[in-house]
């Protein structure tokens, strides 16, 4: 650069006089500002000051570096702000997801209650109104009231069970004698014209007894309702209940179900023929909670067999066959 000679001489003389580094500002011949830095040097033998080295610096380069540093800092700050906002959004979404899922589960539970209780309540109200107009004929309306009450009981049990499935902290699997539980459910069936025959292999699995009981009871109710033997003059159902390992099979001699139709049958509110509408869908949820599944197949000779599969098996020795009227 074309720097004034006097300015170079002055700063070199100052560096030699002070025996140290000296800096100052100056201008070029064109009037542009520059920085001058002088550093003295010494003779090898006498170590006396022999002269000074003067370095000329362009301040424009420093300002450009400063601008680049400012841009880099601002850009980095902006990226950090965006990253923080995105991270906060993701974390807040994850923290709110359980609340949204709980609210959605509550809404489904209320929808189930409203949908399923409407029919039995209407039946009971209608029967009471009719009986009120004819007090002497009250006895003839009791069977209808009893059926509506039984249906309401089933609905309440199913809804409470669905609530337990949605509240994961209430799921309590324990070692369970699956064959004994199924036998108890069959024995609790009310006496009727239908026939239920059990084929039970002794088996132990890890499951929630209350949930499995509801699932088996729903499968039995479905078989007794839809599995009437075609052509039977008494409209009876012949149901076989089997326990093999972790699988509970409920088979009937009804019209049969196409396996391709099973996904639709396992949906809520897809019942036909007077069911509660959530029974089979609840069986599917119980199976899923235990890591299992629900399947259906056609029976040779007519009818369907629904299979509820649960979790791991521990098999004790034993086998029982006990036909009984239900």
Strand segment count: 12
- Report the structural category: alpha+beta
* DSSP helical segment count: 7
- pLDDT averaged residue by residue: 77
Summarize the structure.
The chain is of the alpha+beta class and 326 residues long.
Helix-strand blueprint:
Layout: H1 5-18, E1 22-27, E2 33-42, E3 49-57, H2 59-133, H3 138-166, E4 174-177, H4 178-187, E5 195-201, E6 204-207, H5 209-226, E7 238-244, E8 247-251, H6 262-265, H7 279-289, E9 293-298, E10 304-309, E11 313-314, E12 319-325
Parallel strand pairs: 5-7
Antiparallel strand pairs: 1-2, 2-3, 4-6, 5-12, 6-11, 7-8, 8-10, 9-10
Question: How would you explain this protein's 3D organization?
Answer:
The chain is of the alpha+beta class and 326 residues long. It contains seven helices and twelve strands. It has helices spanning 5-18, 59-133, 138-166, 178-187, 209-226, 262-265, 279-289; strands at residues 22-27, 33-42, 49-57, 174-177, 195-201, 204-207, 238-244, 247-251, 293-298, 304-309, 313-314, 319-325. The strands form three sheets. It has a six-stranded mixed beta sheet with strand order 9-10-8-7-5-12. The longest helix has 75 residues, at 59-133.
């Amino acid at each position: 650069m074309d720097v004034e000679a006097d300015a170079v001489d002055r700063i070199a003389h100052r560096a030699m006089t002070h025996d140290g580094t000296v800096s100052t500002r100056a201008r070029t011949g064109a009037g542009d500002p520059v920085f001058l830095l002088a550093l003295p040097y010494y003779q090898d033998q006498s170590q006396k000051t022999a002269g000074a080295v003067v370095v000329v610096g362009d301040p424009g380069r420093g300002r450009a570096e400063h601008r680049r540093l400012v841009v880099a800092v601002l850009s980095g700050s902006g990226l950090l702000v965006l990253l923080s906002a995105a991270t906060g959004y993701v974390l807040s979404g994850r923290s709110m997801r359980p609340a949204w899922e709980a609210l959605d589960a509550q809404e489904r539970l209320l929808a189930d209650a409203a949908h399923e209780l409407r029919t039995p309540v209407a039946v009971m109200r209608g029967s009471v109104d009719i009986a009120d107009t004819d007090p002497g004929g009250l006895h003839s309306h009791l069977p209808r009231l009893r059926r509506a009450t039984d249906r309401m009981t089933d609905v309440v049990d199913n809804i409470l069970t669905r609530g337990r499935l949605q509240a994961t902290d209430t799921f309590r699997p324990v070692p369970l004698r699956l064959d004994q539980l199924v036998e108890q459910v069959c024995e609790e069936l009310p006496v009727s014209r239908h026939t239920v025959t059990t084929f039970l292999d002794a088996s132990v699995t890890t499951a929630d007894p209350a949930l499995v009981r509801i699932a088996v009871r729903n499968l039995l109710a479905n078989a007794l309702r839809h599995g009437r033997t075609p052509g039977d003059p008494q409209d009876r159902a012949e149901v076989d209940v089997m326990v093999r390992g972790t699988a509970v099979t409920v088979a009937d001699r009804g019209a049969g179900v196409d396996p391709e139709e099973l996904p639709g049958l396992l949906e809520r509110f897809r019942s036909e023929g007077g069911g509660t509408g959530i029974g089979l869908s609840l069986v599917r949820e119980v199976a899923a909670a235990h890591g299992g599944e629900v399947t259906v197949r056609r029976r040779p000779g007519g009818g369907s067999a629904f299979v509820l599969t649960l979790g791991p098996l521990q098999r004790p020795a034993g086998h029982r066959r006990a036909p009984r009227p239900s």
